[in-house]
Hints:
The chain is 9% helix and 60% strand. The chain is mostly beta strands. It folds into two domains: 27-257, TonB-dependent receptor, beta-barrel domain (Maltoporin, Chain A, Beta Barrel), CATH 2.40.170; 259-271 and 320-416, no CATH class. The chain has a 15-stranded antiparallel beta sheet with strand order 1-2-3-4-5-6-7-8-9-10-11-12-13-14-15. The longest helix has 19 residues, at 275-293. It is globular. The N and C termini lie far apart (56 Å). The relative contact order is 0.07.
Amino acid sequence: MAGQFYQTHGPTLRPQGFKRSNLFGKYHTHLSRHSGLSFSAGGFTSSRSASGQIPQRVVRNGLISRFGALDDLEGGVTGRQNVSLAFSMTGENSSELHLQGYVSRYTFKLFSDFTFFLNDPVDGDMIEQTDHRTLFGINTRYRIQNDVFGALFTTTIGGGFRADDIAVELWRSPGRQCQEAHVDADIQERKFFLWIQEEAVIHPKFRIQLGLRQDYFTFDVNDHLEILPSNTGLPHVSGAHQESMLNPKFNMVFSPGRHVEIYLNSGSGFHSNDARNVVIARGMTDFERSLRRAGQNDAQIETAFSARHFDPTQRGIRALPRAIGSELGVRTTIKNATLAVALWRLSLEEELAWVGDEGTTEIKGATRRTGFDFEARLQPYPSGSGSDLNRRPDAEASFRFRRGSAIPSYWKTTGQ
C-alpha cells in the first residue's frame, strides 16, 4: 500500500489552494506452483484555483504584478480510479499464459480564460471543459518456445478488447456560470485487436523478430446539439463508423562482439482520430451524396456545407491514419556503462490537432519526421552487491538526448 497527500498555495497573490491525493495498493498470491493472481487498485484526485496566463504588457504597464491575475477564477478538478486483475501461468516448453482485465474511471473539469474580453466585452470569455469517461478491457497473451535444428523460436499470440464510454462538453461560462454549450456529445469507442509475433535466435550473434497486428475500431457519436439551431460556428453530427487496419513489423539484432549490438527496427502503426471528426467526415460524405442525388451542383453543395459549418478540407478524414517508422542504432556496454545512438524516421499519413478551447480540430496534413537519439546509462556497482546484512542500495544514472525535425509531406495528395 502507498499513499500521498500534497497541498500548496503557490506563489500567486490569490492562493491557488492546490490539493492532490494518491492511493495505491497491490496484492499478489500463488494459486499453485505454476500460476499466480495479482490485483491492484489505485486512484488520485486533485483540485486547484489558478491565476492563468497573463499578458506581459499588463505586467510591464503596472496593471498587475507578476504574480497577479486578470481572472482568478480559473482552475478545476480532475481524478482517476483504476482497478486491474491479472492471472499468469507457466507450462511446458517455457510456455506462459497471461490474462488481464481492467476498469478505469476518469473525470476532468477545467475553467480557462485565455482571451479575457475579446469575444464578449461584457461578461468575458471564460470557458468550461468537462471530460468524463469510463474505460474497460481485456488483454491476453500466450507464449511458447521451440528448438528447431539448434535455433530457438519463440511464438507469442495476443489479443484483447477495449471499450471507452465518454461524455465531453465545452461551455461558455463567464464567472464559472454556464451560459452556452459549444460541445455536448456522448461517445462510444470500441477496439478489438489480435496480434502474433515470432522471434528467432538463429545464431548467438543474430536474431530477428516478425510481427503482425490487426485492429478493428467502431465509433458511435451522439451529439446532443445536432437537433438545435447552431450558432456556435461548429458542425454537429451524430452517427457511427467502423474501420480496421493490418500492420506488420520487422526487428533485427546483430552482435558482432560480446558488448556490441547493431539493431534495425521497422514497421507500421496508426493513431486513432477523434471520434467526432471521424463521424463528421462520414456525415459530410453522406450529405454530399444525398445533395447530388437531388441534382444540386458544386456551388449549391458548398453553400449547404457552409450553413452546417462543415469544413470542406475535412472530407475524407480517416479514423486510423497510418504511421510508418524505422530506426537504425548501435548499443554498447563498457563495464557498468551503456551507450546507445540511433537514427530514426517516422512518416504520418495524417495529423489532426484538437483545439480544446474552441471545440474544433486543425488539420496538419501528412508529415515526415527524422532525427537521432543518444542515450547514456551508468550503474556504479552491480545491483544487490554485498551481503544481505550490508547490501548496497541500487543506484543508476541515465541521460538521453533527442533531436529531430518535422517537415510537411505531400505524398498523400500527389500519390507519390
